[in-house]
């Protein structure tokens, strides 16, 4: 649990609440899901390399990635149609490529924990 | 010089030790004096290795070398079983000339340090990421920072380890490492603090070196492009960029094979070989734990695996199919084979006659087929010269042969019913086993004509939905015939002669006079019929009704050859408890004659009806039961074999003489009498007790048993009258007589035995000759008294 502590990992800030403007909320969500999509890409690649025999986990990663892409698509359309927002600056964390096997595992675990906390 | 050599030592003058961290080994370089080199001495060296934290030497090895004049230093490599970063290692060496017995002094220890941890930001695990072969031993260490102690150093999943602790170093040794069913093992090390920098982690992978495929093989389809295939072999547990990598090399041309390996169920690699014909392909499979090679040497012309034939098309007649197809393999002579799937599921293979080049028009002809029948065909080919493998099968093609005249004959049979002025003949037909329709749109044409006058024939056509018809004919002899027709032609006719009615009457007469209906037995598989063979007949026919109780009864028949005299008749319609009647006919020149009659059950059941006792004749010790109207004929569900009469007194167990004990399901006991003649419908139960209540029942039985006993008849035997009479005679009459006698005793006495001496008063005594006057006198001379007494009474005085 300590190793998966998401405290130190980068994650887009989601500083909106019920009183925030709807547009702000949509932009924040877009940033979050765009970041998550990239993270899932790294995590899935690392998982395929480190443990390709865990089929169930890989399937769940693929499915979650598809859902995330669907959400991004909907948010893109919504932001464009309702708020004339065509571009959003997204900050992505570090890529896990080139890191040690342990670091790859740890980073993936931390990012997913952070996502769960945020959601 | 020899004596000098024995005592001369050549100490090590130079020693240098360095680390090769990539291979985790010490590289040792040393030398002795120039004089030894000049003398080209053969020398022995004793090398010792020691770790800093261990006082004892942990490795000693002897190394022999012959020096040369070039003066080059000597080298030695030592593989460390623990990471060199973990601690300092020291080496020393001493020497001895082979001719000498004296060792030199040891050199000083030459030390290479482990990792300098003074500038470390946290503990460090070595090795940090490693691939370890399954079954090997493996040591890790964790180096703590100066001033820090190591609190935790462990593996996940937990495995058995040997633990060693030195001042700032902890070692974990795993022996005979196993895969653990997980993709990697994680190592954790923590100093005695909790901040993030107090931890280090590492991962290592346990895997296997790759397996050499044992099915590596190369082939070509067109002699231009070669494909090599092989199986991946067992799991190495190493994935991603550690998974096995395959490379192919052609030895004769000394070139790496320019192909891209792709693996799914099997691995394969293809490339163009140009004009080369003989190849030696070496395939190397490698992963971080090792590599294996396998080789295939071959002549390309001996490894032709043709492409599957394409574009099949056919020509066919009623018995022949000729398949044509296209070759894809230019310039290659092929030999082909056709597989034909028959309707019965069997498979036939037919070879092509001769070989084919692509520009010829290859074909195969399959003969001896059935008309109007579907066959599924496909073709494959192999190299005509130096056959290697059959190609893949072409796409299957289903072909139907053309129609032809129906072959064989229909099987025809009849049922004749006399009516006024003639007969109704119901004709039945079916396709005999030898009959083949050989086409579609089957119809049946029935023709009938008088035997004596063929010019007046009548006929009717029926569709294939029909299998019978009724024809009314007069009393003449008729020829009935039936043919099957398809789109091509008519089959040969099947003929049946219906004799004239006079002849039929004779047969009927004989039937009733001579033909007894014989009982036959059923088995699990049917009803077994036998008949007396007679040599004059061409065949025998057995007919029966599937539903004897219905009209129409679904007449069935079977034909048998002249040498057959028995048959097991079975029908899906046969059910237990139904009586089936079989008629056996002999046929010659299409005329059938009834020979025998049989009757039987597939399985007999208990009777449908129990005998109803119509008359009961009761005596004091017997009862006679009669059930005369009980039917024992075909309406029963088995042949009535006899009867059981059950008797019991109401309150006791049975003990009747002449009976058998029978225990009912409720454990009560009856006496059982058996009557084995079904026509005997009257029975007397004897030896009953008079004035006693009995219960009785009469049950009929078949080979299927009898129905449970449910209803009884109750009787009460009367009192025995003879006994009464005897009672009256022996008791009542004597008593009566005794009473009367007593009542009239005086009269009787006077009458029979009056008091002496007045015999004249006796009415009984009458002695005529002894009367004097009217007085009766007894002559003294006729009587010899026994006793004499003088009576002085007055009455005597009177006398």
UniProtKB/TrEMBL annotation, chain A:
It is found in: Secreted. Pfam families: LIF_OSM (PF01291). Its main location: secreted. GO terms for biological process: immune response; leukemia inhibitory factor signaling pathway; positive regulation of cell population proliferation; regulation of cell differentiation. Keywords: Cytokine, Secreted. GO terms for cellular component: extracellular space. One of its GO terms (molecular function) is cytokine activity. InterPro entries: 4_helix_cytokine-like_core (IPR009079), Leukemia_IF (IPR003624), Leukemia_IF/oncostatin (IPR001581). SMART domains: LIF_OSM (SM00080). PANTHER family: LEUKEMIA INHIBITORY FACTOR. LIF has the capacity to induce terminal differentiation in leukemic cells. Its activities include the induction of hematopoietic differentiation in normal and myeloid leukemia cells, the induction of neuronal cell differentiation, and the stimulation of acute-phase protein synthesis in hepatocytes. This is Leukemia inhibitory factor. It comes from Nestor notabilis.
Automatic annotation (TrEMBL), chain B:
Pfam families: fn3, LIFR_D2, LIFR_D4. GO terms for molecular function: cytokine receptor activity. This is Oncostatin-M-specific receptor subunit beta. SUPFAM superfamilies: Fibronectin type III (SSF49265). It is found in: Membrane. One of its GO terms (cellular component) is plasma membrane. Coiled coil: none annotated. Residues 306-404, 406-505, 607-720 form the Fibronectin type-III domain. Its main location: membrane. It is a single-pass type I membrane protein. Belongs to the type I cytokine receptor family. Type 2 subfamily. The keyword Repeat applies. The lineage of its organism: Eukaryota, Metazoa, Chordata, Craniata, Vertebrata. Gene3D superfamilies: Immunoglobulins. The chain crosses the membrane at residues 723-741. InterPro entries: FN3_dom (IPR003961), FN3_sf (IPR036116), Hematopoietin_rcpt_Gp130_CS (IPR003529), Ig-like_fold (IPR013783), LIFR_D2 (IPR040817), Type1_Cytokine_Rcpt_Type2 (IPR052672). Keywords: Disulfide bond, Glycoprotein, Membrane, Receptor, Repeat, Signal, Transmembrane, Transmembrane helix.
